[in-house]
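As a warm-up, study this chain.
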Amino acid sequence: MKLYIKNMVCNRCKMVVEDVLKTSGLHPTSVELGEAVIIEDLTDEKKKQVNENLQPLGFELIDDKKSRLIEQIKSLIIQSIHHSNEGLNTNYSDFLAQKLHHDYSYLSNLFSSVEGITIEKYIILQKTEKVKELLLYDELSVSEIADRMGYSSVAHLSSQFKKVTGSTPSQFRNLRQKHRIPIDNL
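Now compare it with the structure written out below.
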């Protein structure tokens, strides 16, 4: 049985969810961002218990198809930005439409109506947090970061970064307090 789980954004989330499933007496065969496959079929009572075990840790089971689709959109974006060292060889609209087998305009309208922001804005917020992370590591130049993140130029990265944060990447790197936002709060 496949379970869809809200707010899974990293490998630690996968470990925590797997642990909750096991301590709930279930046998997960795989746990990925946004979903887990278990051997058992769940009764409504057992599903409620699992959800109650997940909620204090910031996770939640998702039942309706639209919510699952939104979580899949978020998971694919987070995976491509935060957990992949390879740049996206296509634009996000084609990538999401292909992966989710839906027309991009449907995905975009659904996402905007539920989340209150566009997919593009969500991507920009995720990219900005990844850029902040890379700036904090201080191992790459701004030019290398722009290239790694798929920006057409340093100027494009700087402009977008400044619109979101109020400072340029160089100014951010020099700040004493680095204000990062957990990616599941974007």
